[in-house]
Amino acid sequence: MSGAVSGMSGAVSEKSAAIEVRAVEKRFGNVGIIRDLNLSVAKGERHAVIGPNGAGKSTTFNLISGHIAPTSGEVKLNGDRISGLRPFEINRRGLSRSFQVTNVFARMTVWENVRCAVLWATGHRYAFWKNVDSLPEVRARTAQILDDIHLTHRRDVPAGLLTYAEQRELEIGITIASGATVVMLDEPTAGMSNAETERAVALIRRLTEGKTLVIVEHDMSVVFGLADRISVLVYGHIIASGTPEEIRRDPKVKEAYLGEEAH
Amino acid sequence: MTTATTSTSKVAADSVGGSLRFYGIWLIGIFVLIVLPMIFSSGGSLTSFSLIGIAIVFALSYNILLGQTGLLSFGHAVHYGLGGFAACHMMNAVVSHGWPIPLPFIPLFGGLGGLVFAMIIGWVMTKRAGTVFAMISLGIGELVASSSLILRSVFGGESGITTDRTALPKLLGWSFGPQLQVYYLIAFWLVLSAIAMYALTRTPLGRICNAVRDNPERVQFIGYDPHVVRYIAFCFAGFFAGIAGGLAAINFEIANSAYLGAIQSGLVLFSTFIGGTAYFFGPILGAILVTYLQLGLTNLTTAWQLYFGIIFIGIVMYAPGGIAGLLMMHRPLIRAGTLWTVIPSYLLAIVPTVALACGVILTIETVARFSGGDPINLFGIAFNPTSPVTWIAAAVLVVGGGFVARLTWQRIAEAWDRAATVARDRGYLA
Amino acid sequence: MLELIVISTLNGVLFGMLLFLLSSGLTVIFSMMGVLNFAHASFYMLGAFFGFQLTKWIGFWPALVLAPLLVGAIGMAVERYGLRNTHKHGHVAELLLTFGLAFAIEEIVSMIWGKSPLDYRVPALLDFPAFTIFSTNYPAYKIFMLAVSVIIFVALLIVLKRTRVGLVVQAALTHPHMVGHLGHNVGRVFMAVFGVGSALAALAGVIAGPALVTQSDMAASLGPILFVVIVFGGLGSLPGAFIASLVIGLVQTFAVALDGSLASAFGPLDPSAGPSVLTDVWNVTIAQVAPIVPYLLLVIILIVRPMGLMGTRES
Q1: Measured between CA atoms, how close is B367 to chain C, in angstroms?
Q2: N or C, which end of chain A has less CB nearby within 10 Å?
Q3: C-alpha distances in angstroms, A230 versus A40, A64, A73, A92, B127?
Q4: Is the Cβ of C246 closer than 8 Å to some Cβ of chain B?
């Protein structure tokens, strides 16, 4: 629980904030999807974003990771402004994200999938003069991650042929492979059975040890079991931010969200 | 060379056996290239082998785009042609200035010609992938082909630029006058280019090209700019296409606007796709087959291009993995020992499938020769294109052969499913 | 000079409208199905050749109706038995299929009708000068072509704006990912759209055949220009395709009509310098450059506006 912030305010001092979203707005045409979004995630914190369907959770992820640019406002990563940068530029600064819909390299093997995600961070970039198979640190790191996500026995299978749960695990593996210090997971357990979910949560807990984690999740048991802090997003606006206990008690949250959906 | 470009995780070099097999295949390839002209030494075969060698380099360069990076280009001949012109100009310059550059170095300048153009135009072209890239490559191809007729001082107008390869400084006493010496020059560059292009698939860049092919969006979230990846791949493809063009310039001692044109671009697409884009050796098979057919069919029929079109459509619809894909499908079955269960249904399918093919050929030739009235010679049997007997025979073969062939194909599919299930159970198939 | 401008404007608009007859079908098919139909210009060519053959057998006016219907049927068959089976292999495979088809159609056409231009005449009923501007007789047939193009254009507008199918097509243009939710008859809608697109291309072929050259390479020479039009206009945008058709039609017509070169404008270069790229560029006439003008426009738009004139979509 290192870096967890206590207290109601939700304000994190700028220095220790891994992600700082300030007054971000996103409009598609005349429709405002996100309005005055403020979010602060401390370094080392596990932060869950919850909210009803269509609240703009995935859009928030896309705004932070550079998939789409905000109409106004700014996003900071470790104190540096990242809004307006391209996704790969943001990724190179140490922020990595997964996708809600599985988004792997379908024709490449599990091993290749993870290895590709390791290459930039290990400094090999666009190298066309090195044999990719004889890079010891790349091989070691890829093997380690495959081991971590329990897919070593499936290493030579094309990713497109994996089972759904395996693809979700691979998705997490690709996301953490670069060693990013800020990891964002978009509904990592969506569509999984209870047993698979349990496994995935343990996996996430272990793999994001010492990192900053932002997670979007529908399963409340996952959220309350994993998160240090929770933000509630409704209609593109964060209505509450706090510890799981505070969120559980917050009357606004109950009214807007938990009252109807949490069972 | 049998290693799939998409799965080399089990690195051949990891085990001694795999390593031996890997280098063995390359050594066998080199050996074949060396002894081939000793077995088939006629002038005609040497010319064919030379053309096939050039076509292989060209098709392999095309597969850097299509198979490795997922870029469908309709204008790849631009780099081939510019490489050819660069080589011709270089050869003439070497002769007129008396530079000490022997002929075997000339293809390198062809490669540079292709590379320089790719570097200039590539950044704009590779901004977008998919359909848009395909359309742009078509447009750029037309632009260059049309411009070549305007810039006469560079491209020599309709007649092109001629050169004399024997006028260059000799190397080890070789004048490169005889076709045999040109063949070995081409074979040398073929081996060199093939090794370089294969090595490229096994670099970090080569792997990221595959990732861009599979999922350009996700690549951005592992730190890569897909535009840069496409651009570098495009430059490499341009370079090796230029080498192929340089070899062609040496072989024909001329470069003209046909090198740059849409037909050349179409042929390399056909070769690569028919051979199979998912495996490194696919384009090699395709280039051999297409060049061989092209040389063989032009003498037999006026409609030879139509046969290419039909084969190509058939591959696109029924075997998008190409010939290499069809062959490699059998690997897990061989390993699992279930291939023999499929073979009887293959044998059964041969007769009706050949009948169907004969029917199609007869139909095409009937139409092609209807006004001329030349007889059709199909496996020694003469058919008169204006006779109703021929029409009926064609119709019976197409309809009857097609009907029976479909049944036997279904049988193959069923037998295949059973064999694949067994292979899967035994762990040879994912 | 004024005469040249008036005549070239008329011809340019006419060529532009013809291009739009083709590019509109191509755009709608692309928007709905994600397929860029490489064989679209081949359907145009088939229209011209069928038109020629049917005119010989049953006369021009029945041919004008029958040839597009025949080609439309071929288009529907291509969609039903070709594209639909290839769909599972992705858009590149579909594009390759239509590429192979374009190649095969060209070969079949030259096999049946030969490679030389056909004697496809303007129907006698329309073989008279419509009016005379300055000293040029403007043929009635061209006015007829323009009229047909405009009628089809207006009809398309009405269908798009007023009918149920039109609404579906419009929805597909703006929200391509929604096409999958059209319901169980999506296959039939695709087939119909493909058929109508092919028929329109064939209609353009039938009416253009007598005025332009009917030859087996007409698809190969028009096809690339067509793709320039829709990339220039912005893939998937009908207004973009309309503007781009007219722009390219006019630009190319004017370029062909102009005979000037840098040499004629600024005087010849010093002949002692010898031939070089500079002399090539200096002496080439605008008319000679005309074939490459569309592609130059393509390169320029790609640098300035990679999405095309009115495009909004990535791919």
Answers
A1: 7
A2: C
A3: 11, 17, 22, 27, 40
A4: no
| B202 lies within 8 A of chain A by CB | yes
Q: How confident is the model at residue C132 (pLDDT cuts 50, 70, 90)?
A: confident
- Give me the mean pLDDT over the B109-133 stretch: 92
pLDDT in tens, B2-34: 444 444 444 444 556 677 788 889 999 999 999
User: Which amino acid type is present at position B248?
Assistant: A
pLDDT band at B83 (very low <50, low <70, confident <90, very high): very high
C176 near B CB under 8 A: no
Helix (H) or strand (E) holding A184: strand A182-186
Contact by Cβ (8 Å): B234, B126: yes
What pLDDT does residue C178 have? 66
- Inspect the structure and tell me whether chains A and B have 3 or more CB pairs less than 8 Å apart: yes
Q: What stretches of chain C adopt beta strand conformation (E)?
A: 129-133, 136-139
Q: Is B208 on the interface with A (CB under 8 A)?
A: yes
Out of A220-229, B241-250, B355-364, the most confident range is B241-250
Please report the DSSP string for B179-200 in residue order: HHHHHHHHHHHHHHHHHHHHHH
Whether C99 sits inside 8 A of B303 (CB atoms) is no
Higher pLDDT, residue C226 or B153: C226
H-type helices in chain A, by residue range?
Answer: 57-65, 87-92, 110-119, 136-148, 164-177, 194-207, 220-226, 244-249, 251-253, 259-261
Amino acid identity of C193?
A: V
Q: Between the ranges A4-13, A51-60, A115-124, C302-311, where is the mean pLDDT highest?
A: A115-124
**pLDDT average, residue stretch B129-146:** 89
CA distance B112 to C267: 37
Measuring CA to CA, how many Å separate C86 from each of A184, B314, C95?
37, 11, 10
> Could C281 and B309 be called an inter-chain contact, meaning their C-beta atoms sit closer than 8 Å?
no
Q: Is B213 on the interface with A (CB under 8 A)?
A: yes
Query: Among all chains, which residue has been given the structure tokens 């529907």?
Result: C76
Contact A109 B7 (CB under 8 A): yes
Contacts of C235 in chain B (CB under 8 A): 131-132
Helix axes C91-113, B304-318, angle to 10 degrees: 160
First to last CA, chain A: 27
Q: What is the C-alpha separation between C196 and C98, in angstroms, rounded?
A: 17
Q: What CA–CA distances, in Å, run from B168 to B51, B99, B181, B192? A: 22, 9, 14, 22
Residues A173 and A143 sit within 8 Å (Cβ to Cβ):
no
8 A C-beta contact, residue B262 and residue B165: no
d(CA B252, CA A247): 79
> Which chain B positions have a beta carbon within 8 Å of C281's beta carbon?
150-151
- % of residues, chain B, pLDDT over 90: 52
Q: Give every CB contact of residue A223 below 8 A, 6+ residues apart in sequence.
A: A48, A50, A215, A217, A230, A244
- At residue A43, the 3 state secondary structure works out as coil
| pTM to 2 decimal places | 0.91
Inter-chain CB pairs, A–B, below 8 Å: 125
Distance from CA of C216 to the nearest CA of B (A): 13
Lowest mean pLDDT among A87-91, A129-133, C302-306: C302-306
Q: How far apart are CA C19 and CA C200, in angstroms?
A: 11
Cite the beta strand spans of B123-195 per DSSP E.
161-162
Residue A7, pLDDT > 50, answer no
**Taking CB atoms and an 8 Å limit, are B220 and A91 in contact across chains?**
yes
